[in-house]
């Protein structure tokens, strides 16, 4: 059976939808910022249309990107950096748990109301179901990580040395910029949804440009754009 195109009921071209979604999720822009940028290019849409496209296509695109990267084994199992950030939702503190590999690839995002052993264990189980097991967990001194890895029988693989988790700390910065542009979140579900979509699209375009030549960076960027333009193609 042939795969149906997710754009089949939309009059707008898939190229415009992909462009609007990439601008909104990848860069720290508001819905109205995206509307203005597309207007400058002669594309007349409402910011509410951008919101609808993001809710409709964001999870679909993110899921396709994740499947491609997991199938292609692009994420490393050598070392995973784990960390959590505080996120306010209607004045209440929630915790966004995130895991990245040694190259900054975001492996998993998980939102909870607590950061105890139960939350850490649920996060690790979700991470390992998708990516398998790692040779080393790098964490901070939070006791919840220690309790969780002990229950998983992986305590000897944990590294909580000082400054060893800077990779995870730095990986939070793109998400924080997006959070400020969106004027924070209103629901726990919307935070989980956006964090997952943002992580996948960030992975698609993330380039360690300081580690490669200009020519290699341009080549990798063109490959990422070509793959992006092929998402959702039936």
Description:
By secondary structure, the chain is an alpha/beta fold. It has 2 domains: 14-72 and 208-229, no CATH class; 80-186, Nucleotidyltransferase, domain 5 (2-Layer Sandwich), CATH 3.30.420.10. The protein contains 8 helices and 5 strands. It has helices at residues 14-26, 31-40, 47-71, 117-131, 143-151, 166-181, 188-205, 214-229; strands spanning 80-89, 92-101, 106-112, 137-138, 158-159. The chain has a 5-stranded mixed sheet, sandwiched between helices. Helix 2 (31-40) crosses helix 3 (47-71), helix 3 (47-71) packs across helix 7 (188-205) and helix 4 (117-131) packs across helix 5. The longest helix is centred in the N-terminal third of the chain and has 25 residues, at 47-71. The chain is globular, with a radius of gyration of 19 Å. The chain starts with 13 loop residues before the first helix and ends in a 5-residue tail after the last helix.
List keywords for this structure.
five-stranded mixed beta sheet; 52% helix; 13% strand; 2 domains; Nucleotidyltransferase, domain 5; 234 residues; alpha/beta
The SSE order reads HHHEEEHEHEHHH
C-alpha Rg, in Å? 19 Å
Q: What's the architecture of the largest domain, going by CATH?
A: 2-Layer Sandwich
Overall strand count? 5
Individual helix count: 8
Uncertain residue segments? none
What is the overall pLDDT average?
Answer: 89
- Proportion of residues in helical segments: 40-55%
Shape by Cα distribution:
globular
Q: How would you write the strand order of the largest sheet?
A: 3-2-1-4-5
């Amino acid at each position: 059976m042939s795969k149906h195109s997710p754009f089949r009921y939309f009059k707008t071209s898939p190229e415009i939808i992909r462009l609007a979604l990439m601008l909104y999720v990848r860069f720290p822009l508001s819905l109205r910022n995206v509307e203005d940028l597309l207007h400058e290019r002669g594309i007349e849409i409402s910011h509410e249309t951008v919101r609808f496209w993001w809710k409709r296509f964001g999870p679909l695109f993110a899921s396709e990107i994740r499947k491609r990267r997991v199938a292609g084994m692009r994420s490393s199992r050598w070392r995973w950096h784990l960390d959590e950030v505080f996120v306010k939702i209607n004045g209440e503190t929630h915790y966004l748990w995130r895991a990245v590999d040694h190259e900054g690839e975001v492996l998993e995002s998980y939102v909870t109301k607590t950061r105890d052993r139960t939350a850490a264990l649920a996060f690790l189980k979700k991470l390992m179901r998708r990516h398998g097991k790692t040779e080393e967990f790098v964490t901070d001194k939070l006791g919840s990580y220690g309790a969780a890895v002990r229950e998983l029988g992986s305590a000897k693989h944990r590294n909580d040395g000082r400054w060893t988790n800077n990779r995870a700390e730095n990986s939070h910065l793109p998400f924080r910029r997006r959070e400020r542009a969106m004027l924070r979140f209103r629901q726990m579900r919307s935070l989980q949804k956006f964090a997952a979509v943002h992580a996948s699209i960030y992975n698609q375009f993330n380039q360690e440009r300081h580690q490669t030549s200009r020519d290699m960076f341009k080549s990798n960027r063109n490959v990422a754009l070509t793959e992006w333009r092929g998402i959702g193609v039936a």
